[in-house]
């Protein structure tokens, strides 16, 4: 298996790489400035890293998202990656009243049959590092899968397209079940 990780210049990028490598995935890391969208078809899946700012300001990130949708490539979007997927789908990104940086918080699943959360309890702790959040519109293709205690959307998916996104950091030590989530995504991609 060969995954592309689009690095949005985040300090957590290589934590995600190490988790993927533990799942026996070969990972190529390319920054959002250097990514070549014509090569996306060479990969089994694309992972969109966290990062600062907003998706339209993040190099070629929105172009990558558009191509993954067009080519039906499985995607995992983390934080900024989730926001990019939402914007592409016509959903809204808004600035939270309370910024969450380096905080552990319990979130709850609302879609218990999500393969991304296989063998993960209904409530679990995650590491949050975000000021922006996603609001899905009525006609969004995304299904909400988890929310924070304050009803902030924490994850979403389009399972038939193998597109998954989280607003928290699965690669943070503040997310004890994070490696399991990454393993679940790899299993979804491989069909195992």
From TrEMBL:
The keyword Cell wall biogenesis/degradation does not apply. The keyword Nucleotide-binding does not apply. This is Aminodeoxychorismate/anthranilate synthase component II. One of its GO terms (biological process) is tetrahydrofolate biosynthetic process. GO terms for molecular function: 4-amino-4-deoxychorismate synthase activity; anthranilate synthase activity. CDD domains: GATase1_Anthranilate_Synthase. Transmembrane segments: none annotated. It holds the Pfam family GATase. PROSITE patterns: GATASE_TYPE_1. It comes from the Bacteria. PANTHER family: MULTIFUNCTIONAL TRYPTOPHAN BIOSYNTHESIS PROTEIN, MULTIFUNCTIONAL TRYPTOPHAN BIOSYNTHESIS PROTEIN-RELATED. Coiled coil: none annotated. One of its GO terms (cellular component) is cytosol. Keywords: Glutamine amidotransferase. Residues 4-186 form the Glutamine amidotransferase domain.
